[in-house]
Each structure stands twice: as C-alpha cells, then as structure tokens.
Amino acid sequence: EQAFAVHDQPDAGLWEFRTRARVHTHSSVMCWAACDRLARIAGHLGLAERSTHWQARADQIRETILREGWNPRLNSFTAGFGDDEIDASLLLMHEVGFVRPDDPRFVGTVAAVERELKRGHHLFRYVREDDFGSPQNAFIVCTFWYIDALIAQGRTAEARELFENMLACRNHLGLLSEDINPETNELWGNFPQTYPLVGIVNCAMKLSRTWEDVV
Predict the structure, then answer these.
(1) Per-residue pLDDT tens for 102-154?
(2) Residues 206, 155 contacting (CB under 8 angstroms)
(3) Do residues 78 and 85 lie in contact, with contact meaning Cβ atoms separated by under 8 Å?
(4) Are 37 and 96 in contact, with CB atoms under 8 Å apart?
(5) DSSP string spanning 161-214?
(6) Fewest Cβ atoms nearer than 10 Å: which of 17, 36, 164, 210?
(7) CA 139, CA 182: separation in Å to the nearest integer?
(8) Is the CB of residue 24 less than 8 Å from the CB of residue 93?
(9) How many alpha carbons fall within 13 Å on the CB side of residue 29?
(10) Cβ atoms within 10 Å of 210's Cβ, excluding its own
C-alpha cells in the first residue's frame, strides 16, 4: 500500500540527494515491482481477488512511468519524471522486468546512458552537479549494471571487454572500492565495497559458458 501511495511522489532517490527532491523514475519502477510481485504472490496462493487488485495497482504505476518517465526527444527514459537527465539506475529497468532488454525503449535508454555517462571503460551514475560539485569519479557498480544490460542485449563481446577491464582494476586482494578515477583507474571512496563485488559475481555468471557447453 505504501509503494502505491508514494510511486508518484518526490523523494531523494537511489542516490540520496540531500538538496533536491523529485519523482525519480527508478523509485517509481521499484514501487511498480513491489505491486507486480505481490500480484504474482497472490496468484500463486490462489487469492484471485487480491491478485487482480495488485495487478491493477501495478498497471496504473506502469502507465504513469511510461507517460511521465519517457522522453521521446531523447528516445530514452529519464532519471526523473518530466526531465531530460539520464542516470545509471535506468539500466535496472530490465533487471526487475519492467521492460524487456530488446524493447526499443530500453535499447534507446542504453544508448542514452552510453552517450551521457560512459567515460572510457567506466560509467558515471550521473553527471549533473550534486552537493559536492561535478562528479569526478565513476561509480563502479554502474559499470557492472551496464555490462549486464549489454549481455541481455546480446552485445557479449563488448560486455566481456568491459568486464575484463574491471577485473584488472582490482587491488592485489581482488577487491574494489566504491568509485574509480576513469582516467587513472585509481580506486576511490568506501573500501572495500560490496556492490562492485556483487557485480563481479553476477556478470561472471552471465558471461560464463553453460554447463551444457562445457561438459
């Protein structure tokens, strides 16, 4: 109920902005996911009325996101409703099942992310000035989100190149930090950081050959 109540309300978003609030597309997508999963759970339990109720809630949120979070001029979803900013959290839209990876809208969004946020082998989470000024370092987990999106779209060779570059950025213990300088590969921020290590595991699994291919 809370997810439905706040799906179109301003918040600080995934990146926890301190000085501004808006309706973040990623936040709304996660509210959609909450209602969508509850509909599925109710259906699995044989609670048809509750499943219908929550599916209607999910569908309403979805319609709002498709209307307010899509920018036809950019051919991309945007970071917030009605704006023209791109941020890396948009790459997670296919991961939670909101769009298929081959959906033209998601393909356009990945292209916009590449155009706006990719610096060499690394991906910034956003490039707009925040509380600390203009971002100088890439947020490592975002590169893994990008790799995941490339894999989902069949761009495996590009994904593997980026993945191997990220492996080369680890320290002598195989660890990564929160951020990285895109020019020098110097690790910055909280260290060690779980998110990038989870990214390594997830992407390694998706890039690996299947057992059927190996055995």
Answers:
(1) 999 999 999 999 999 999 999 999 988 877 778 899 999 999 999 999 999 99
(2) no
(3) yes
(4) no
(5) HHHHHHHHTS-TTS---SEE-TTT--EESSSS-HHHHHHHHHHHHHHSPPHHHH
(6) 210
(7) 10
(8) no
(9) 24
(10) 7
Separation of alpha carbons 182 and 117, rounded Å: 11
CB 148: neighbour CB atoms within 10 A? 22
Q: Using the 8-state DSSP alphabet, how is residue 107 labeled?
A: H
Give the total residue count for the chain. Answer: 215
Q: Which pLDDT band holds residue 171 (cuts at 50, 70, 90)?
A: very high
Q: Kindly state the tokens that stand for 165.
A: 């570059």
CA angle 130, 133, 137 (to 5 degrees): 90
Give per-residue pLDDT as tens, 175-209.
999 999 999 999 999 999 999 999 999 999 999 97
Residue written as token pair 């950019």:
74
Can you tell me the distance from the alpha carbon of 51 to that of 122, in angstroms, rounded to the nearest whole number? 41
Specify the pTM.
0.92
